[in-house]
Amino acid sequence: MQIVDAEFGTLKSAARRGRARSTETVQLIEAIESLQPGKAKAVMVEPGTTPEKVRARIMYAAKTADRKLQIAVTGDRVMFALRNGRRQRGRPRGS
Fold first, then answer.
1. What is the pLDDT of residue 26?
2. DSSP per residue over 50-74, as a string?
3. Considering the entire predicted model, what is its pTM?
4. 61: Cα separation from own chain's centroid
5. Is 38 exposed, middle or buried (0-12, 13-18, 19+ CB in 10 A)?
6. What is the Cα–Cα distance from 28 to 41, expressed in whole angstroms?
7. Could you report the per-residue pLDDT of 1-11, keeping only the tens digit for each?
8. In sequence order, which ranges of 1-95 are alpha helices (DSSP H)?
9. CA–CA gap between residue 8 and residue 80 (Å, rounded)
10. What's the pLDDT tens digit per position in 22-50?
11. What is the chain's mean pLDDT, rounded?
12. If 0-12 CB within 10 Å is exposed, 13-18 middle and 19+ buried, where does residue 67 land?
């Protein structure tokens, strides 16, 4: 392996190779980015998968889209909405 100096401007403008995402994940990211406050969406759990797996995919897509969601699993659907911006009640976090 050979390490050489490189132009910083070239690094900033170079195409980044991101993680290859499935079409389902891309659809989830688009749905999360289009969410409006006070509105919710749901993903129907398909046969062969579990609500836990669907919830994990939604959490991954939310993290990728840099959004915080409130998620609830009810029967055969996993519902999600934007989380309120208010702070959680309870003991303050340490600094």
1. 87
2. -HHHHHHHHHHHHHHTT--EEEEEE
3. 0.69
4. 2
5. exposed
6. 10
7. 455 666 777 76
8. 8-13, 23-33, 51-64
9. 41
10. 888 889 998 999 888 888 999 998 899 99
11. 82
12. middle
